[in-house]
Amino acid sequence: MIRRPLRRAGVLSLGVLLAFAGTAAADSVTADNVAPIVSGSHFLGDAAPGGTMSADVRFAVICAGLQHIDPNQSVILTGNGGIVPLDGAIVSISTATLTPLSIPWGADGQGCPDPVPSYTGSVSSHVVLRAPTTAGTHTFTVQWSRSLSPQGSNDANAFSRSATSINFSVRVLANTPPAITVPASFTAEADSSAGWTSSWTVSASDAEDDPDPTPTCVPAAGSVLPLGVTTVTCTVADSVGSSVSDHFDVTVVDTTAPTLRGVPSDIAVTTSDAAGRAVSFTDPTATDAVDASPNVGCAPESGSVFPVGTTEVTCTASDRTGNQSTGTFRVTVRYVTPRQASAVWLEPVAGTTSTFVANRGRTVPIKVQLFVNGTATTSGDAALHLTPCEGGTTSDLPLTWSGGRWNVSLDTSSLTASCYTVSAAIGDLVAGSFTLELRDGDAVKALPKKNGVTVPATTTTSTDRRSKTNTKPR
Description:
mainly beta; Immunoglobulin-like; 7-stranded antiparallel β-sheet; 6-stranded mixed β-sheet; 50% strand; rod-shaped
């Protein structure tokens, strides 16, 4: 396979052959001649259609005739166009200057010494050609005009009439357009809120170019493609401008569900309410590669009243594309029978209907039996609470267990109000209460009777500090 170079440098150096453009008969040469120097053939090689070729040309001055260049003069060779084949071009010709001659030369009007002297310059003229686009061998004729510096005598006649030029031939090969290879259309998962950071491989080959040309794509690989379908168009051109394009589609999707974090562990609570209990918990959180703020919620939601038994709570995270992830935990509500306390007041309070009247200053022995859910309580934190009927600070007296009952001596001399609510409590439960009235004067001598029978003391039953009146026989 023939590979086409992007630029072929035809380096022309001094060799054994001196080629004189525009050769004339010996008797017609009247002045010095300036000729290009080439080595071997003027063939620059193979080129692609429209390809660029280049060559470097050096020059020699040869003594001839009776008119000559002055010894102190430099010869300046300036590109002067030439003859080009159809659809070809001379792109550029650089100027070359031959420094002042140092070889003995004949004076004007005299012939050249024997042997005939010549002088070769060290500076080259760089020639750039553009090949035609049609296949075949084509010839370029490149010309230079000549001038002298500084000005001397008889400069107009110092050169022979022969033009300073050279012929280059180029063989143009038929061009094969490049080939491009793109991936098949594919689907990619979004990796950010903006879409997918693209990555793909596109290649190209060419029968003449070495190395192969590099394709370009729009959008370029590495671009962030949004959700949806994006068409990527790729193009490659060879060194002579022949180009081809192809395309593929990239569908960016978001099918990844959010990541749910912090789903609560199972929760177990108790309640004495047959309807259930309100339970609160911390909602989980969620993260998502595409959606910065996915929605998170639980059902039933935090703070809901959960019935007695076990309820499964489902927490769901949803992104804006509709992807969901779920997590579950269980809330177990266990029903516990409410604690109920009751009191049986013993003498001297036992015969009181609801109010016990005593003379101020009397010490009243309080004796009471306490029950929780019907079972007598003989230990624990028992106390007597005294609260003024019209409101005020409650005083507490500890009850002690002895003689099969709870006891405390109530000294009324330190009480300032005339009416108190007296309550017996076991732990956090109020078991029963009565009203204590303090009077000045004769002491109450006897308990009230009805139809000749002593009235039993009033007792109360309390459920979680909520009291209700209940009559209990002595």
